[in-house]
Amino acid sequence: MMNVDDVRRAWQAAQEASGADARLVAVGAPSDGAMPVRGRTALPWSGRLAFEQHLATALGDHAGSVDLQWLAPAPPSSPADRARGSLGMAPRGPATVGAKAGNAPSAGKSAPAPASPVRGVGQVLAVASGKGGVGKSTVAVNLALALRARGLSVGLLDADVYGPSMPTMLGSFEAPTRQEGIFTPPVAHGLPFLSLGLMVNPDRSVIWRGPMVQRMVRDMLQATAWPDVDVLVIDLPPGTGDVQLTLMQKALVTAAVVVTTPQDISLIDAARGLHMFEQLGVPVLGIVENMATYACPSCGHTSHPFGSDGGQREADKRGLPLLARIPLEEAVRSGGDEGKPIVLAAPDSASAKALFSLAELVAEGLSKLKASAQAPEAQPTPG
Q: How do strand 182-184 and strand 177-179 relate by DSSP bridges?
C-alpha cells in the first residue's frame, strides 16, 4: 500500500534524477483508488513531461494510482492554469458533473464514455500494422501529404508513443504550445501534426505503464485544437494494445488501412490487426503492401526481397481490396531521414505514384463512408 512518505521519496528521487526544480505542494489521502498529488514548477510542459517520466520510474508499480496535478499561478482575469501531468487518472469532480437525470451509473461503477467525434476533425483514418518495421509510419506521413495534394485539409497524429518518428520524417521539431490544457499543434509541409516526439528528449526512452500511455494519447487526441481538418490521419503503434483500444473507445474512427510487407511473418500479425478492427466495428478500407518489389538501380532487374503477392493473398482471404503495392526505394528511406517525404521530394518516383494512387482510393472510400453516414435511413413501406 502506498503512503505519503512513499510519494515524497519518489518525488525526491525524480527531482535528483532529472535535475528539475519541482516542488511538492501537497499529497492527499488515497480516494477512489487514486492519491491526489500536487506540485509546482516553472518548467514548461515538455519539461514537466520529462520530470514525470522520472517520477513514474521511482513510483514503480504504483505509478497508475497517482493523480498528479501541476499548479500554476492564475494570470490576470483568467482561470488558474492546471497543466495536466501524465500520471494517474483524470481529475475527479462532483458526482453530478456531466451526469444526466435518470442516466447515472450504478453505485460503485464508472460507466465508460462512448466514443465521440474529435473536435475540429471531419473523419478519422487509422493507419495500422500488426508488426513494427513494415514502414507504417512512412506510409502514414506520405498518405497524409498525398491526401492534402488532392485538396483535402489533413491533420496527422503520431500515436506511436514508444517510437514517435513523425518529427524526423517531417523535418520539424517545434514543440506544441499548450494553454489551459489545450495543445496547438505545429505545422509542417502544410500538415498540423502532434507527436510525443515533440515533447520529450529524443535521447530518452518513454518508460510508461498502460494508464500513463492511455492518458497521453487521450490528451493528444481530444485536448488538441485541430484546425477544422477534413481528415485526421493517425499513425498507430504496431500491435493491438492499450493505445489502439484507447483510440477506438475515445474517438469515432471512420476507417482504417493496414500496412504489411509480403512476407508471411508480417502477414500473420497483419491478420491480428485486421481482426482487432473487425471486433471493434471499424471499417477497413483495405491492405497496403509495402516493400513489395525492388528494382536494381544499375540493371533495372526487379526482385521480391520479402516475397511476392502476400498482401494480395491476405486481401483475397479477407474479402478486402489491395489498395497499393509500394516498391522499396532508397529515396523513400533518405527522404524519411531528411524530413523530405517521397511524395514531396520525388513525386514522379514509383513509390510516390503508388502512394498518390493509394490516396485516391482512400479518399474515395472515406467519401463513400461519409455519404453513407449522412444518408437518411430507409423508411418502411406502409403495408
A: antiparallel
Contact 200, 229 (CB under 8 A): no
Which parts of the chain fold into alpha helices (H)? 4-18, 45-59, 136-149, 166-170, 210-222, 242-250, 264-280, 310-318, 330-338, 342-345, 350-374
Q: Which pairing describes strands 22-27 and 177-179: parallel, antiparallel, or unpaired?
A: unpaired
pLDDT band at 89 (very low <50, low <70, confident <90, very high): very low
C-alpha–C-alpha distance, residues 346 and 145, integer Å: 13
Distance CA 245, CA 146 (A): 27
Summarised one tens digit per residue, pLDDT across range 270-311 is 888 888 888 888 899 999 999 999 888 888 888 888 888 889
Three-state DSSP class for 29? coil
Same fold, 4-71 and 121-374: no
Rounded-to-integer distance, Cα 199 and Cα 254, Å: 28
Q: What does the block give as the cell for 234?
A: 493517425
CA–CA distance, 330 with 333 (Å, rounded to integer): 5
CATH 3.30.300 for the 4-71 domain, yes or no: yes
CATH class (in words) of the domain with range 121-374: alpha beta
236 — phi, psi (to 5°)? -75, 155
Cell numbers at residue 119, please?
473536435
- pTM here? 0.70
Give the residue from 147, 140, 145 showing the smallest Cα distance to 126. Answer: 140
pLDDT at 190 over 90: yes
Phi-psi region of 15 (alpha: psi -120 to 50; beta: other; left: phi over 0): alpha
d(CA 246, CA 249): 5
Q: Are 251 and 125 in contact (CB under 8 A)?
A: no
**In the chain, domain spans:** 4-71, 121-374
Q: Kindly report, residue by residue over 102-122, the tens digit of the pLDDT.
A: 333 333 334 444 456 788 999
pLDDT at 115: 59
For helices 136-149 and 330-338, what crossing angle results, to 10°? 80
Q: What whole-number distance in Å separates Cα of residue 187 and Cα of residue 315?
A: 35
| Cβ neighbours of 74 (radius 10 Å) | 11
